[in-house]
Please model this.
Amino acid sequence: MYYATNEDLDDIVKRLRPCPEDIILAICGSGDQVFALAQYGPRVIAVDHNPEQITLAKQRAQALARDNLNGDYGFCTHFPQEPISDPLRGKDIKSRNQYFEDERRYERIKENLDNITFIEGNFFEVMEREVGKYNKVYLSNASPTAPPFRLGQRLGQLQPKLTQRVLIYEANGEKTIRQLGIRMVPNGIIEEDQLNHQLTAKAWQPASYYLLPITARLQFNKP
Model:
């Protein structure tokens, strides 16, 4: 159970560059990343296989709608006492709350709560089912739990169904690029977003990259 993200919310927003025209498919988790993206006005489809995570995120959204930020079961205080006694989780909660303490940020998120849709289910199944309806994906560090188990293969299966390129943020994207990028980039399946591709000194090694439709690959390969 995740009560707060251990990822860098500023980095996620910087790399995915959310805007009102976007439809973003996102791992839900604690809801932190979903709310951070929603403040800029896109439609966000938040998916999690764990019903408790969906319930937590929904309750936090309801708390924010009531302007309950730091009260009992508030937007920033909706967790049991156990995480605070855990140094790592307590640190994550403190870092998260610092990000959301800006009153203007609260208001922007509150204004866009209706743009968030919560879905309980397998993220990759939803990703395949809703293909063509989203243009950006917040993948966190999710891995397929059903065949094909490799992320690169799963993304490759989506490619023939795409009608537009899809920008993907992955918490451990550097690892994916190192393992699969050299093989896949020449085939046009994945194209790195060079502007967003940077190593960090933090525990995660995030990267963002584009998943390209076949038409884009063919056009790219024309002499």
